[in-house]
Specification:
The chain has about 300 residues and is of the alpha+beta class. It contains 9 helices and 9 strands. The strands form 2 sheets. The protein has a 5-stranded mixed beta sheet. The chain has a 4-stranded antiparallel beta sheet with strand order 3-4-7-8. Strand 1 and strand 2 form a beta hairpin. The radius of gyration is 21 Å and the shape is globular. The site of heme C has 25 residues, from helix 8. Heme C binds next to helix 8.
């Protein structure tokens, strides 16, 4: 499970280029090698940018790997690697955040190098599940993600006791480049919120939360959002207009059960990720958004 995203290798290369330059091993005046034009070995250093409380800090993988509080964290069911058991060298995210000023914003925008941009409620970071930043050692790279060329590195948000806080597979962003304290999605994009008059127990209101935790990282709605992996679900035509309800349900459970091709990227969501009730709620929410966008 998890987001089977397609890593954009060139973007990673661009993101790393600035750091890679300062980390080039040979000095500019190095003597030419015997073979004449042998390429110089570049040590690629990745960095993670964290912004909160008006301060931005950049942590390199070398710096994080060398920290005395780095630990080996075991993951029983890793969403990035088909639910396999994995383990990572990782740094406690709470310790990293303690190096920045507190921020009143209630969300962290977790931006990956491939267009995946999760909006993570800050309260999850201090809740019953413990967040860690897994750090890929360039000298011992992680295996490629299933069906892809790139690994989950250079940084990967992993959770200890994820089930205690109901962390969704889409709240494990891999290929992480930055995390930034931001206002909540409904403050930034009021068009994504159901009407204030809607009862607290209305399915569409629950569906809004399901959408934000599981879909918004990849899909925008009428331009609202930051994700750029999948299509906009409202524009030009709302998805609930051209999908039957049966088709939409089947697609959310398992896109490959509806249509299948080699470069398919949308992940499947089994009942442990999104319950039947939550799919009902999600569809109610998409219908509310559709009625509003194109009455
Ligand atoms: C990791 C990224 C990702 C996540 C998370 C994701 N999707 Fe998708 N989705 C895609 C991509 C990419 C496509 C285009 C088809 C493909 O490559 O699988 C797609 C296609 C779709 C489509 C079909 C649109 C069309 O016109 O063909 C619908 C509907 C949809 N997604 C709904 C959802 C919903 C609802 C959720 C949340 C439960 C969700 N998606 C979560 C990436 C994602």
């Amino acid at each position: 499970m998890g987001h089977t995203r397609f890593a954009v290798l060139s973007l990673i290369a661009i993101a790393l280029a600035a750091c890679a330059q300062v980390a080039l091993a040979s000095p500019p005046d190095a003597a030419p090698s015997v073979s004449g034009a042998a390429p110089r070995a570049a040590i690629v250093v990745a960095s993670l940018t964290v912004s909160a409380g008006g301060v931005t800090r950049t942590f390199t993988s070398a710096e994080l790997l060398a920290r005395s509080d780095a630990a080996i964290v075991a993951v029983a069911r890793d969403p990035a690697y088909s639910g396999r058991a994995t383990s990572y060298r990782a740094v406690a995210l709470r310790a990293l955040l303690a190096q920045l000023p507190a921020d009143a914003a209630d969300t962290f925008e977790m931006r990956a190098t491939d267009g995946f941009v999760a909006q993570l409620p800050s309260q999850l970071l201090t809740g019953a599940a413990t967040p860690w930043i897994a750090v890929e050692d360039p000298a011992q790279p992680w295996p490629p993600l299933p069906g892809q060329k790139a690994s989950a590195g250079p940084f990967f948000l992993i959770w200890e006791n994820a089930e205690r806080a109901g962390i969704s597979p889409e709240q494990w962003p891999y290929a992480l480049a930055s995390m930034t304290a931001v206002a909540s999605p409904v403050q930034r994009w009021p068009a994504l919120a159901v009407d204030a008059s809607m009862p607290a127990d209305a399915p569409a209101r629950r569906g809004q939360a399901v959408f934000m935790a599981n879909c918004l990282a990849c899909h925008r709605m009428a331009g609202n959002g930051e994700g750029a992996v999948g299509p906009d679900l409202l524009r030009p035509m709302p998805a609930t207009r051209y999908f039957t309800e049966v088709g939409l349900r089947a697609l959310i459970r398992n896109p490959a059960a509806v249509r299948k091709w080699p470069q398919q990227m949308m992940p499947a969501f089994d009942a442990s990720a999104i319950s039947e009730t939550d799919i009902d709620a999600l569809i109610a929410y998409l219908r509310v958004m559709t009625a509003r966008a194109a009455p």
